[in-house]
Amino acid sequence: MSPIATVPATLLTPDQLEAELRAIGAERYHDQHPFHHMMRDGKLTRGQLQAWALNRYYYQARIPAKDAYLIARLPTPALRREWRRRILDHDGDDENTGGIARWLKLTEGLGLDRDYVISTRGLLPATRFAVDAYVNFVRDRSLLEAVASCLTELFSPQIIHERVEGMLRNYDFISPDTLAYFTPRLTQAPTDVAFALSYVKEHADTPEKQAQILDTLRFKCDVLWVQLDALYLAYVAPGMIPPGAFVPGP
Amino acid sequence: MSPIATVPATLLTPDQLEAELRAIGAERYHDQHPFHHMMRDGKLTRGQLQAWALNRYYYQARIPAKDAYLIARLPTPALRREWRRRILDHDGDDENTGGIARWLKLTEGLGLDRDYVISTRGLLPATRFAVDAYVNFVRDRSLLEAVASCLTELFSPQIIHERVEGMLRNYDFISPDTLAYFTPRLTQAPTDVAFALSYVKEHADTPEKQAQILDTLRFKCDVLWVQLDALYLAYVAPGMIPPGAFVPGP
Question: Can you list the domains of chain B with their CATH numbers?
Fold first, then answer.
């Protein structure tokens, strides 16, 4: 259940709404998180990178489910075709293509067992709860909120750029091939988000809907932030790994 | 989505099943968490206690929703009557009775504004995701798993005893009246859980169902553990309060 919301009295123009969305991202997107700063600056150990990739796998793996729930609710073939591309991008055409397969290349490149990653047995519980909250949000909320929940992609090219640069510069066990996941995302994300942003700017035409959209972006930033918070507590400081979660090797 | 489970080959006797459940509690129940140890030992500051009570309010507030989903799925008047008592215990007969009203006495005794607490605006996102995961679990899983998810109450009298003792001994701003929430729980929880435990021991009659029950208790322990993890990271060490969450006064 969401917090009790306060609705602004005035209707924003579409461009004002976009500016408000960008202001939320500037404050709350997970490129502001200390765990990301460590990755960018090459300060994470191999075990910490493993924990990140292992947990983030669950997010990647559930994205097509999230998008399928969204497609199920879109009313026209044109809208469904537009959204369908996201599932193709993630699931690929066979076992070796698509975003999830490329993510498994990353976890493999970091020395994690493929079956262990896929089983999600070593996940931090907070990762599971946050990702499931996202999938359920898209399934259960209004279509407008569901579409808006992908707007964090507005900010992803920059964070991907920082991750890739930081990892290639600082870790000799990471090759451009291991990071193959990220390259297509630099072009996919802007295409995806351009559609969602223009949809939201067109359809959020009351103060109530605009407030919902802004709350949606805050919620989605929380989903990403919580995942880095949990990694930080378990694997950086104070290093409290919850019972049953992944323990990096020596 | 749950991790891919491994099902044991053999059927446990009901008493062996209970022993397995108790072993999971001994390892994973949140009385093992450093944040609880600080509370028990009087090491939390007033601001940290405020953050705990504020976040835990959301858990208390959603318990009747969880129980209502469960009642909706029980097949007989006798079973529904048995479970109904839990909603009465939490919601009371008027604004001044019941577990939620008593929890608000605690947050008020700690100096928090009542409307702010009820709004849940200052919640840690991890609290919301964990509690919502619990409510959704009870709504969406099998009835047997839904009933089993309350089995953490097996271990609650001890943790309540430690909390109350620790707080009364160490904080002069806390009175027995402020802690009125906990006294009835010492008798309610054992009554509630005796029914659930005997239901589970009777109905978990295949290895698959027994594995589900054990996984359910692990899941529920995670729900409680994640809440203390998030409090620890934000308000103990390293003190990383997520954007928008409650900030204790000076």
Answer: 14-235 (1.20.910.10)
